[in-house]
Each structure stands twice: as structure tokens, then as C-alpha cells.
Design goal:
Largest sheet: none
Order of helices and strands: HHH
Low-confidence stretches: none
Number of domains: 1
Structural class: mainly alpha
Strand content: under 5%
Mean pLDDT: 93
Shape: elongated
Number of strands: 0
Radius of gyration: 20 Å
Distance between the termini: 45 Å
Length: about 80
């Protein structure tokens, strides 16, 4: 997701429709979404935030899953 957010202003990446954002105006979803919200100038910042939030979630997911398993094991042993 982050590379496409980062490309919102430049429009150089190939999109699913087979065109780039420069070739088809209003076709790049992130350009449209960030433009409507007035955040188009922050596309790079938003891209980096989404990337690092994703990394943190990927790293925390196994910890949360392990904690859930441990809590269930502890709960079952208490019965």
C-alpha cells in the first residue's frame, strides 16, 4: 500500500487498470482520496506512516497470539 500512497502526486507506477496515474487523470485512487481530504502534499509522510504501522502490527501479531494462547492455557488449567 505504501508505494502507491507515495506515488499519489507523481503518478508513475502502473495501476491495476494498465495505465499510470499520469496517463489517466482521476484514476489513481490515492491521488483522489488524498486530494479530496487536502492531504495530497503529505503523500510521502502518510506512505511512511502506513509502512511502519504495518511493520509494527506484523511484529505484534505473534506476540498477541502467543499471549492469547498462554491465557487460554492458564484458564483451562485453573478449572
Amino acid at each position: 500500500m505504501a508505494p502507491y500512497i507515495n506515488d499519489a502526486r507523481a503518478g508513475q507506477l502502473m495501476l491495476i487498470g494498465g495505465v499510470t496515474g499520469q496517463e489517466a487523470p482521476d484514476f489513481h485512487d490515492w491521488n483522489v482520496l488524498l486530494g479530496i481530504t487536502g492531504l495530497l502534499g503529505y503523500d510521502g509522510v502518510i506512505a511512511h506512516l502506513s509502512k511502519y504501522i504495518g511493520v509494527v502490527l506484523i511484529l505484534l501479531a505473534p506476540l498477541w497470539g502467543g499471549y492469547s494462547l498462554w491465557a487460554q492455557y492458564k484458564n483451562l488449567r485453573g478449572q
